[in-house]
What does this fold into?
Amino acid sequence: MLWDYLFISEGAIPFASADPIRVLPACVIGSAVSGALSMAFNCSLMAPHGGIFCITINRKSRMVYFSSCSRFCNSSGNYGYI
It folds into this structure.
């Protein structure tokens, strides 16, 4: 979870290589929902990129944080469901 907030995607590589059938769709769905939310909220950075380092440079930092949290929740929830 900490790596997700820091936007370090290398933390997912061991999990994706161990179980790609479950991890990759869960990550794609979580990222798609997060990207759609950031676009719907009209954030200045349309993709939640940079994690907590870029939240302060957005004009709607709370919405970017919410989008980033939704990415984590959706990815982990979908992983448990799949």
User: Anything to note?
Assistant: Residues 14 and 79 are 15 Å apart (CA to CA).
